[in-house]
Every structure is written in structure tokens, then in C-alpha cells.
Design brief:
Elements: E1 2-9, H1 13-24, E2 29-32, E3 47-49, H2 50-55, E4 65-68, E5 71-75, E6 81-85, E7 90-91, E8 95-98, H3 100-114, E9 117-119, E10 122-130, E11 133-140, E12 143-154, H4 162-165, E13 177-186, E14 195-199, E15 209-213, E16 218-225, H5 234-244, E17 252-262, E18 271-272, E19 275-277, H6 293-313, H7 318-347, H8 351-362, E20 368-369, H9 371-381, H10 383-389
Parallel strand pairs: 1-2, 1-12, 2-9, 5-14, 7-20, 12-19
Antiparallel strand pairs: 3-8, 4-8, 5-6, 10-11, 11-12, 13-16, 13-17, 14-15, 15-16, 18-19
Helix pairs in contact: 1-3, 1-6, 6-7, 9-10
Length: 393
């Protein structure tokens, strides 16, 4: 049986950040991933903010940057668009569209350089607690094996089994899990180079559609929907969208990705004895826009630091690990509570109301654009928003 201080299950951005910072802080770390290739298949639109990378001290690398974003186009149901240009306003929450298959490997390699060990094609099948640690049963390259760890960090995505095995309440109601479908497409007609497009309304019930450019005529084209708002699948909505949206009618898909996106905010329980959960497994996804790369990496960094400190303390109890929950709530969860309220409000709007808001936005002046800034303007232009969100934004 192998033994290690910290076992991290899942080598996405959150897991790799946890591995890196646990290793940098002196712990013996093993990072495992069930896939043969870290980063594949991708499960998101691949957008990430420059400010977020800077906060996390991740230096941009041309190898994993597909395109740089300098404009955002918001499109209402009737086609009215609001164009936000970096030359006119500060686009604080946009920056790059990534190549996740390269980016995720880059983060895993950083973890390895910090001292973490990595095992791919390694599936965690169950785990059991002992007095002094956790035994995790695995299949490595198809062969059974066991690992004993003092602390396990679950970074195994929205369908996380680690949280369930540990007895944490991580289940989500259908209304809190978006179903997403996305094509990577070639032949996309993008009249605004470097422009990220978001399309709202009944085209994507409970969510929105997106076009994230990755090249001159290449883009991630996808959408997220709530099953409580539609009888169709996300894939069916995606097919309808690409058939009707002007920029995608002549485009061809070269890749399809589907998956769930938790949009209920941070889970109430992130720790128990010997176990932490982070990233999508912990609900570290912005409920308003569905983005989770930067917030997941932030949570992963905190998890690595707290777990390493617990190893140094020799105390792996829930009480000692609770600092992780407190820091995550302060750095991630508090803002997510506001965005969850905003999401609930936006879900109540009809296509006609969204069209009116787009008209009002076009008559407004912006200095800085982030989800919070947009909501502040929304409160100013909409009496209904003022009533629902005025105290929050």
C-alpha cells in the first residue's frame, strides 16, 4: 500500500493548484486523475480573466492562450446588442480564451515542479476512514491498488464522489445544476475580432448562449439551460441556436462537449475529518455567469495551504481544517450569495423585459465592466431590479 500526506483526486485547475501549494508548503502530495490525458475533454467555454490569473500568480503563456478578448457583446432576445469595448471601459472579468487541454497540463506540471507526484489513468473507486487517515481504493492503469493518506482533497468535479463518500452534503436540486452543451466550431462569422458574445432569453431557458472566439473563424459555441425551465435537452437547444444565429449558420462543429455546471453557490459543508473538497466539487462556480476556473483555482490554492498546515500541525480534524471553510466563504462564497440572488431575479424576466433592459443599457455610460458593475447599472435602469437587488448592488 502506498502512503502519502495528501492525496488530491482530480487534476483540473483546482486540483493542480491544491497540489502545487500543498507541496510548496512542505507536504508530501500525490495528485491523481482518472483520465489518460489531463485537460481532455474540456468542459467549459475556456474563458478566464487577466485579473484572476494575476491574483493567482499564474503568468500567461502563449502556448495555452487561444485568443485575447477586448470586447464583449451582450445580445437580447430581439437581437439588440450592447457592445462593450476595452478601449472605452475596463473589462475586468475578461481576458483570454484558453486551450484547456494545454492550460490544465501546464498547471499540473507546475504542481510537479513544486514537488507533487502525479498519476494519470487512476480512478478512485471508494474510500474508508481510519483513525489516523483515509484508505482510498483505486484502479491504476486498470489494476487495483490502495493509497493511505492523512488528508484527501476532492477536486473531482460537479459529480464529486469524494464529498459523498466523506458524508458531506453536496447534492444539488435540478434547478441548481445547469445542463451545458458546446461545439468547438470552424467557419464562425465573427464581425468583431476578439469579441466575446453572450445571447440571452428563451434561446437558452435558465441560462444563456455564448460564442467564445479562439481564432479568426474558430469559436466555442455553447449554452447552458436548466431542466426546470425546458423540456428539451441542452444539445437540442444548441442545435437550434447554431441553425438560427447569424454567425454560426455556416459553421461546422469539430468537437462536442456536454456536462453539468453547479450554479447554487458554495456548498455549506466543505470539510470533515481528513477531507476537503474544492473547485466544482465544492460549488465554486459563479451562480450568475457559470464561470468557475478562477474561483476553483482560488479554492484549490486555499485547500493546498490549509491541508499542508494541518500536516505540519499533525491535526487532520474537522475543527483544524475549518479554517479552509472560513477563508473560502470570505474570498468566494460571500460574493456568490449576491450573484445567486441576481440569477434568481434574471430568471424571472421575460424576453420583452430583457429587450427593454438592453435598450436602457445602450443609453448608459460604463466605466468598468464586471458582473457586479453590470448589475449596478441594471439596478439604476430597472425599477424592478431596484426593488429586488437594490440592497445588494
Amino acid at each position: 500500500m502506498l502512503e502519502t500526506d495528501i492525496l488530491i483526486i482530480g487534476a483540473g485547475p483546482a486540483g493542480s493548484m491544491a497540489a502545487k501549494h500543498a507541496a510548496l508548503n512542505g507536504a508530501e502530495v500525490l495528485l491523481i486523475d482518472r483520465k489518460s490525458e489531463i485537460g481532455s475533454p474540456k468542459r467549459c467555454a475556456e474563458g478566464v480573466s487577466k485579473d484572476g490569473l494575476k491574483r493567482l500568480e499564474v503568468t500567461p503563456d502563449p502556448r495555452w492562450i487561444a485568443s485575447e478578448i477586448n470586447k464583449v457583446r451582450l445580445v437580447s432576445p430581439n437581437g439588440t446588442d450592447v457592445l462593450l469595448d476595452e478601449d472605452k471601459v475596463k473589462l475586468s472579468e475578461v481576458g483570454y480564451v484558453l486551450e484547456r487541454k494545454v492550460f490544465d497540463k501546464h498547471l499540473a506540471m507546475d504542481a510537479a515542479r513544486a514537488g507533487a507526484q502525479i498519476m494519470v489513468k487512476t480512478l478512485a473507486t471508494s474510500m474508508e476512514k481510519e483513525k489516523d487517515g483515509i484508505i482510498v481504493h483505486l484502479e491504476h492503469m486498470g489494476n487495483p491498488m490502495e493509497i493511505k493518506a492523512k488528508i484527501v482533497i476532492g477536486a473531482d468535479g460537479p459529480e464529486s464522489r469524494v464529498g459523498r463518500w466523506a458524508g458531506l452534503k453536496t447534492g444539488l436540486k435540478p434547478g441548481n445544476m445547469e445542463s451545458c452543451a458546446q461545439f468547438e466550431m470552424v467557419g464562425v462569422d465573427m464581425k468583431q475580432p476578439g469579441c466575446l458574445e453572450l445571447v440571452f432569453g428563451s434561446v437558452a431557458p435558465g441560462g444563456y448562449a455564448w460564442i467564445f472566439p479562439k481564432g479568426e473563424d474558430i469559436a466555442n459555441v455553447g449554452l447552458g439551460v436548466l431542466s426546470t425551465k425546458t423540456d428539451k435537452t441542452a444539445y437540442q437547444h444548441l442545435l437550434e441556436f447554431v441553425d438560427t444565429y447569424p454567425g454560426t449558420q455556416k459553421a461546422q462543429p469539430v468537437e462536442l462537449n456536454v456536462g453539468g455546471d453547479p450554479v447554487a453557490g458554495l456548498h455549506k459543508e466543505l470539510v470533515t475529518d481528513h477531507v476537503l473538497i474544492t473547485g466544482d466539487a465544492a460549488g465554486m462556480v459563479n451562480p450568475l455567469d457559470g464561470g468557475g476556473i478562477i474561483s476553483g483555482m482560488t479554492g484549490g490554492r486555499i485547500a493546498g495551504e490549509i491541508a499542508a498546515k494541518a500536516i505540519s500541525d499533525g491535526d487532520y480534524s474537522k475543527k483544524n481544517l475549518k479554517e479552509y471553510q472560513k477563508r473560502c466563504q470570505k474570498e468566494i462564497g460571500d460574493s456568490f450569495k449576491k450573484y445567486l440572488k441576481a440569477k434568481e431575479y434574471l430568471l424571472s424576466l421575460s424576453d420583452e423585459e430583457l429587450n427593454s433592459i438592453a435598450d436602457a443599457f445602450n443609453e448608459s455610460d460604463f466605466d468598468r465592466i464586471s458582473p457586479t458593475d453590470l448589475l449596478k447599472v441594471l439596478v439604476k435602469v430597472s425599477p424592478k431590479a431596484m426593488l429586488k437587488l437594490g440592497k445588494l448592488f
